[in-house]
Amino acid sequence: MADALRALTRLAFDELGLGAGGIGQVHRAIADRAFMPGSPAKLLHDGISSAVYAGVQGVAAVAGRVASVALPERPVSDSARGAALLAVLNGLRGDVLEREGSPLATPMTLTAEGVSPRLAVFVHGLFESDRAWGFGGGRTYGERLAGEHGFTPVWVRFNSGRHISENGRSLAESLEELVAGWPVEVEQIALIGHSLGGLVARSACHAGGDWARRVTHVVSLGSPHTGAPLESAVHYAAAALGALPETRPFSGFLRRRSAGIRDLRSGSLVDEDWRDRDPEALRAVACREVPLLDGATHCFVSATVTASKDHPLGRALGDWLVLQGSASHRAQETLHVGATHHLALLNHPAVYEQLSEWLETAPRPA
User: pTM for the complete prediction?
Assistant: First the structure.
């Protein structure tokens, strides 16, 4: 991704031009109500304003090309800030970046630290990268599992803006290759996913492969198994804002959200949930109920911003992004962490204590 900095610069200026165009649409819509149709004042206003906004868009496009050529080739993801920026960008527009062949689209990569028969595979969430597991500082779950239980941490980095089912297939294929080429016989695989990552892990299990026979645990940390209310709210807001010309550009902005974000509306895990369906339809067709992986223990962790999950505020807000019922849906083993927010589940002492117990007590495959 050596040319990612140039691509990022071009994209920034392109978005600036699109923003100017959106402001222009709002301006024209307001003017259409303020001026009498066909009047000289309106014709003069429309001519001047159109020229101004078109000029801004043109200048932004040219400036983006010129600036990108002048910049040196430099990897963006090498720094923590660069990796975070790319993770957010992929979460927002990753599906489009992939279709356009942009160097900003993050390919799925698996990075292992050490070699042992026991693998702990960490799958990050929306807008995150594999660096997210160090949230808050201190030792990560993977580092502690390696030192205390002999697991090899495997960090997954991927484009979270793709459909969950697409990432699930890619993860299944990557794990198949990893296990086939592993220096020692793999005895145990634990999949640990945060938020959207927990859904990607379940989708990968559904895609299957020889590697899946070795999975003993599927651990989800704050994953919206039955959907996330925030995505539903954005979906309906986009439809409502599209009703008036003055707010239509804002609707268009919301409708540009990625496939990965849209899949969170109902916790979609398979292609048939989205293929050949209108993504803007107000009434969503029910998602396919995907069975839990046979032979594995499914351990789901939920959190609420209140100490008790039964507190009315905790029921309404969950961990700010995912409700407790959605995060614990159909789990065989559960943990609730009170007075905690969504991101804290990435590196929380209570979560690690329970994770450590789960991975040691559940049976391993023969």
Answer: 0.87
